[in-house]
Design a protein that fits this description.
The complex is a heterodimer. By secondary structure, chain A is mostly beta strands. Chain A is about 0% helix and about 50% strand. By secondary structure, chain B is mainly β.
């Protein structure tokens, strides 16, 4: 069993829909959870990071962590074609934001249809 | 956010030769840099962590003599793939963080696609 499982997609939804992206993990020692967005031929950029179980909201994005189920989610409201990208979940044992090495999911390729 | 420049974006080399990949932090001091590798349809996997002025720490299963990492300055780290073979063909990406800053976000380069023929 891989440490972090993420459906690679592609996931295709119409513009304006709510998008739900998910990852599961096996190691309960992970403490910080991050979501990165990666456009083609670019490096990943940090969208959100969370520490505790619960929800964290930032604009159209909501990150959700359920440590008891080892399950994290990213919700995108009012999705736009510009949101089309690969979304990577990542987690770490130590400090947030990536200051320690990260364990990544495979990434989900998201397509928002105009 | 801060900018990390990785060079080259892609490289093709012959089997048995060595390839050097550079990772530069352009507008901040990178006290720590990370090197990741991604095979097709797989996750980004951490290869090694390097702190400026120190020897790199390699993850289990990564050959330190094959993947030479140098982090001699606060703005530059290099990864040299020595005696490259076709199985080393992969996507290599670096990230950099300033541990002395309040913001410990890691910023990623754009990656290097290595093809060994």
């Amino acid at each position: 069993q891989k440490e972090v499982e993420q459906d690679p997609g592609p996931l295709s939804v119409p513009e304006g829909a709510i998008v739900s992206l998910n990852c599961t993990y096996s190691n309960s020692a992970f403490q910080y959870f991050m979501w990165y967005r990666q456009y083609s031929r670019k490096g990943p950029e940090l969208l959100m990071y969370t520490y505790s179980s619960g929800n964290k909201e930032d604009g159209r994005f909501t990150a959700q962590v359920d440590k008891s189920s080892k399950y994290i989610s990213l919700f995108i409201r009012d999705s736009q074609p510009s949101d089309s990208a690969t979304y990577l979940c990542a987690m770490t044992f130590g400090s947030g934001g990536g200051a320690d090495g990260l364990t990544f999911g495979k990434g989900t390729h998201l397509i928002i249809q105009p | 956010g801060a900018v990390v420049s990785q060079h080259p974006s892609w490289v093709i080399c012959k089997s048995g030769t060595s390839v050097k990949i550079e990772c530069r932090s352009l507008d901040f001091q990178a006290t720590t840099m990370f090197w990741y590798r991604q095979f097709p349809k797989q996750s980004l996997m951490l290869m090694a962590t390097s702190n400026e002025g120190s020897k790199a720490t390699y993850e289990q299963g990564v050959e330190k003599d094959k993947f030479l990492i140098n982090h001699a300055s606060l703005t530059l780290s290099t990864l040299t793939v020595t005696s490259a073979h076709p199985e080393d063909s992969s996507f290599y990406i670096c990230s950099a963080v300033d541990r002395g800053s309040v913001n410990t976000e890691a910023f990623f380069g754009q990656g290097t696609r290595l093809t060994v023929v």
